[in-house]
Amino acid sequence: MAILAPEKGWWQKKVASDEKTWIMFAAVVALALFVLMVGWHLLGKQNPSYIVYSTSPDEFYKLAQANWAKYKVGEEAGIPVVQPPPDADVFVLASTWKWEPVLVLKKGANYKFHVSSMDLLHGFSIQPVNMNFAIHPGYDYVLTFKPTSAGDFRLMCNEYCGPGHHTMIGKIKVED
Ligand SMILES: [Cu+2]
Predict the structure, then answer these.
(1) How many angstroms separate the CA atoms of 55 and 90, rounded?
(2) Cα of 15 to ligand 1 centre, how many Å?
(3) Are residues 150 and 74 in the same domain?
């Protein structure tokens, strides 16, 4: 019974051979999973990795505003429509409860995304592709991004962020 102390010297008992087999088996499985983790990162269609820098909501907001002013081509319901050229920096800002700006990108071009939140934890999720990142305020998430198909994509928030969470839907248009 667990309520009683184990008998003295129990830790000095030799490990039985079947127990040794199980320990070896577990070690082999753990090592195999460790190797798979690296392989899966390189070969599996996982979330791409990104680089994170620390920033502040104020600083990021200023950088985003300057970037949008440079590449702005219009406005949709008060949200700027931004068309950055290939290889440009692209700023995406999450706040309760919207994504800014509306992006117009070119298929096959490379972009350097900077994503941050102004207030709470939000989730940057591009639908219907498998991309999903947690976005905390105070950090600049930098990811290289190359749209591989044309069409209209939705940017969803994938972390519950309050009563307007379900309305937090952004737009990315990818042109041929
Ligand atoms: Cu949300």
Answers:
(1) 16
(2) 51
(3) yes
Is 63 part of any domain?
yes
Read off the amino acid at residue 163.
Answer: P
Instruction: In whole angstroms, give the CA distance from residue 170 to residue 100.
Output: 7
Q: Could you read off the pLDDT of 136-167 as tens digits, one per residue? A: 999 999 999 899 999 999 999 999 999 999 99
> Where does the pLDDT of residue 131 fall: very low under 50, low under 70, confident under 90, or very high at 90 and above?
confident
> Which spans in the chain are helix H?
17-43, 57-71
CA–centroid distance, 123 to ligand 1, in Å, is 6
- Tally of domains in the chain: 2
Tell me: do 34 and 80 sit in the same domain: no
Instruction: Tell how far the Cα of 116 is from the centroid of ligand 1, in angstroms.
Output: 13
- Measured in angstroms, how far is the CA atom of residue 138 from the centroid of ligand 1? 17
Instruction: Give the chain's end-to-end CA distance (angstroms, integer).
Output: 70
- Model pLDDT for residues 30-43, shown as the tens digit of each residue: 999 999 998 888 88
pTM above 0.85, yes or no: no
For residue range 73-126, list pLDDT tens digits in order: 999 989 999 999 999 999 999 999 999 999 999 999 999 999 999 999 999 999
113 closest CA partner among 142, 140, 133: 142
CA of 156 to the centre of ligand 1 (A): 8
Ligand 1 centroid–CA 127 distance in Å is 14
